């Protein structure tokens, strides 16, 4: 088996199954049902690359187990890890904002089980149902806010380190 292929379980994703994921806590059953229509239950081996910086964002994931490393390409250094995403978290937000290209890369740091969503289907539903669109956008915005605050803290910590301490 190719390590870069996802293993897709043949289990139907339901609104009830999505209710257990912390990213969706408090979302109405109707909105979870809309998401379930665009979802697959998937698994990936360690080392699987979810996406590359600059690639077209067609999917996003809600991690059920495992860890994903977010990285950025730095000229002369290659891929540099910048964050780790784990259980209960969202992988990917670039699918929601034009031009729908990934702002970072992501690779499975361990085996990962996740709900995978077709971004085009979810975006279309966001457009056709403004209440659903608001709910999804608000949740993604919360993730972005949390990650920006985390990045700010890491940058402040790194800036006060003595030269050569890293």
Structural description of this entry:
This protein is an alpha+beta fold and 166 residues long. It contains 4 helices and 9 strands. The protein has helices at residues 15-19, 29-37, 119-128, 130-159; strands at 7-8, 39-44, 49-51, 59-65, 68-74, 78-85, 90-91, 105-108, 112-118. Strands 1-2-9-4-7 form a 5-stranded antiparallel β-sheet. The chain has a 4-stranded antiparallel β-sheet with strand order 3-8-5-6, with no helix packed on it. The protein is globular.
Secondary structure layout:
Elements: E1 7-8, H1 15-19, H2 29-37, E2 39-44, E3 49-51, E4 59-65, E5 68-74, E6 78-85, E7 90-91, E8 105-108, E9 112-118, H3 119-128, H4 130-159
What is the helix content?
A: 25-40%
What's the end-to-end separation, in Å?
39 Å
> Sheet bearing the most strands, described?
5 strands, antiparallel
Oligomeric grouping of the chains:
single chain
In the sheet with the most strands, the strands line up as: 1-2-9-4-7
Residue windows where pLDDT falls under 50 for at least 5 positions: none
**Helix and strand run:** EHHEEEEEEEEHH
Descriptive key words:
5-stranded antiparallel sheet; 166 residues; 4 helices; 4-stranded antiparallel sheet; alpha+beta; single chain
């Amino acid at each position: 088996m190719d390590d870069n292929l996802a293993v897709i379980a043949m289990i139907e994703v339901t609104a009830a199954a999505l209710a257990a994921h912390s990213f969706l806590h408090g979302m109405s059953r109707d909105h979870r049902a809309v998401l379930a229509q665009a979802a697959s239950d998937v698994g990936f081996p360690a080392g699987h690359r979810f996406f590359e910086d600059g690639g077209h964002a067609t999917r996003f994931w809600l991690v059920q187990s495992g860890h994903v490393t977010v990285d950025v390409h730095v000229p002369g250094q290659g891929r540099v890890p910048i964050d780790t995403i784990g259980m209960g978290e969202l992988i990917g937000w670039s699918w929601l904002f034009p031009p729908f290209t990934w702002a970072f890369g992501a690779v499975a740091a361990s085996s990962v089980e996740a709900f995978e969503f077709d971004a085009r289907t979810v975006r279309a539903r966001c457009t056709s149902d403004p209440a659903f669109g608001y709910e999804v956008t608000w949740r993604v915005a919360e993730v972005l806010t949390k990650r920006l605050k985390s990045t700010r803290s890491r940058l402040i910590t790194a800036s006060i380190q003595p030269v050569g301490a890293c």
